[in-house]
Amino acid sequence: MATYALLKWQVEMGADEAIGNESRNYFAAPSLRATGEAIQPVHEKELDRHGSSSLAMTKLQASPALAAGSAREMADKAATLAELEAAVRAFDGCALKKTASKTVFADGNPNAAVMVIGEAPGAQEDMQGIPFCGPSGALLDKMLAAIGLSRAEQVYISNTVFWRPPGNRQPSVEETAICLPFVEKHIALIQPKLLLLAGGTAASSLLSRTESISRLRGKAYPYQNAYLTQPIQTIITYHPSYLLRQPAQKRLAWQDMLMIQSLI
């Protein structure tokens, strides 16, 4: 039981994948590796094939303001959804990309009436490159299906950032600000009839609201950005991952789903 409890604690702390077959003492001196070989330090002179250290931060990653400006320039130039996706995949201004396995852009029908913006990719999303494909995604699909919507036909899904934060932590204010120009252009290219923001990160990033979801939910908000010619009706609800931890709140989320049904 002690071993199981320790494993459960590690998973809750974000250690959701093994990186080796044997444990390693990271507090030992560099020369005391289990194999007996000395750990070779990485020097800036040791460059990768692109001409820079693979562990070094890019200039954009070192400056959130510069990165956000670069993202804005790339988003401005993207005239189609394909061009925007290519720009996001080529973008190196967000440090999350260095630790993520895949860029998670979107899923669903680009011609959908409802666009869902969540928080950030999780472990399953990072492995598959699809937003909301893990347990929270399964719950989201059930919630939408209950009002006759499916991601294959009537729903389009993305997040406030396109790369998984380490340990499934929330994306920082800087990280969401860097990705915001892409998200704004994403919404403008989809032109949904209704926008559903799942969780506090999406609400604070897109609507600049800091209140709790319990205070924000239950009403419609007009969403506007520089790329839109007219506002989009926006609903805020609990993130499915929160509902998995707090199932008693599902009754309120159901009320939000009914509101969506009445608006579309």
Description:
The chain is an alpha/beta fold and 264 residues long. The chain is 42% helix and 10% strand. It is built from twelve helices and six strands. It has a six-stranded mixed β-sheet, sandwiched between helices. β5 and β6 form a beta hairpin. α3 packs antiparallel against α4 (81-90) and α3 (64-77) runs parallel beside α8 (173-190).
Q: Write the element-wise H/E pattern from the N-terminal end onward.
A: HHHHHEEHHEHEHHEEHH
Characterize the biggest β-sheet.
Answer: 6 strands, mixed
Name the shape in a single word: globular
**Distance separating the two termini:** 51 Å
Total DSSP E strands: 6
Uncertain parts: 25-56
Radius of gyration, whole Å = 21 Å
Spell out the key features of this protein:
10% strand; 6-stranded mixed β-sheet; single chain; 12 helices; alpha/beta; 42% helix; 264 residues
What's the structural blueprint in terms of helices and strands?
Elements: H1 2-12, H2 59-62, H3 64-77, H4 81-90, H5 96-99, E1 107-108, E2 114-118, H6 123-128, H7 135-145, E3 155-159, H8 173-190, E4 194-198, H9 200-207, H10 213-216, E5 220-223, E6 232-237, H11 240-245, H12 250-263
Parallel strand pairs: 2-3, 2-4, 4-6
Antiparallel strand pairs: 1-3, 5-6
What would you say about this model in short?
This protein is an alpha/beta fold and 264 residues long.
